[in-house]
Design goal:
The structure is a single chain. This protein is of the alpha/beta class. It has a domain at 33-200: Rossmann fold, CATH 3.40.50.620. 36% of the residues lie in helices and 10% in strands. It is built from 9 helices and 6 strands, in the order αααβαβαβαααβββα. Strands 3-2-1-4-6-5 form a 6-stranded mixed β-sheet, with helices on both faces.
Length: 249
């Protein structure tokens, strides 16, 4: 889909009101992941970025961008609390896909966070910890971007079951593109194994979803792909995709 068809665009500040999301999502409903990635780059150019946490979906997205030769910049929200296995995979992906993945880190260091809020904020106020270490850094990073690509999928959890392939991110005032929205877990893993792609080995140790080390646990039986995150808390999202109750910092 080019800019002169259903997705007709204007330039500059007017772009935020020029995309007709319902029409776009109807158009891309039966299109491929590649179709949407190419459209995203043709539409937004160097003002579109790809976010990854190095989960299985993110690996698929990065591989498709690599295979298509699209020079989309990638980034990862480095909370400084990720698993060693995640950092190792980061290095592997950069080398194998020949891509730079920018670390986006919080302004407040871990020691500064402890000094201000006490030890183990992730345990005492998980929403605030996520807000400081993920939500705020993402907001700052996306401030001058027009769109970002995510690995969100409807099958991941009930909170994600109604996502569209193209959405307006009200928190960050950008477009959010979810090329894998209609993929299931089985299709993701079939793709990873078919192309012999690297993945986080914690998946083989009972971790369906992998986030920060203190807030992610292995599970034997899981109800959805987000199981193991914030165990024993009434919390299923960090807040970058779906808003949590957050207090100011």
């Amino acid at each position: 889909m080019k800019a002169d068809s259903t997705a007709k665009l204007t330039s500059g500040k007017e772009i935020s009101s020029s995309l007709k999301l319902e029409e776009l999502n109807n158009y891309f409903r039966d299109k491929t992941v590649d179709d949407l990635l190419i459209w995203g780059y043709e539409t937004f150019g160097n003002e579109i970025v790809a976010g990854t946490a190095f989960g299985s979906s993110g690996i698929v997205i990065l591989h498709r961008l690599h295979e298509l030769g699209l020079p989309v910049k990638a980034f990862c929200l480095d909370t400084q609390l990720l698993f060693n296995e995640t950092y190792h995979l980061w290095k592997t992906v950069v080398k194998q896909f020949d891509i730079e993945i920018e670390p986006v880190q919080p302004i407040l260091t871990l020691s500064g966070q402890t000094a201000r809020y006490g030890d183990e904020l992730w345990k005492n106020d998980a929403d605030k910890c996520c807000y400081i270490r993920k939500v705020l850094p993402l907001r700052k990073y996306l401030a001058n971007k027009k769109a970002w690509i995510t690995g969100l999928r409807r099958s991941q959890s009930s909170t994600r079951s109604c996502i569209e392939k193209i959405e307006w991110d009200t928190e960050n005032k950008t477009y959010k593109i979810n090329p894998l929205a209609d993929w299931g877990s089985e299709k993701i893993w079939e793709y990873i194994h078919a192309y012999k792609l690297p993945y986080n080995r914690l998946h083989d140790e009972g971790y369906p979803s992998i986030g920060c080390i203190h807030c992610t646990s292995p599970v034997k039986d899981f109800s959805d792909e987000r199981s193991g995150r914030w165990v024993n808390l009434e919390k299923t999202e960090c807040g970058i995709h779906f808003r949590n109750d957050q207090s100011s910092t």
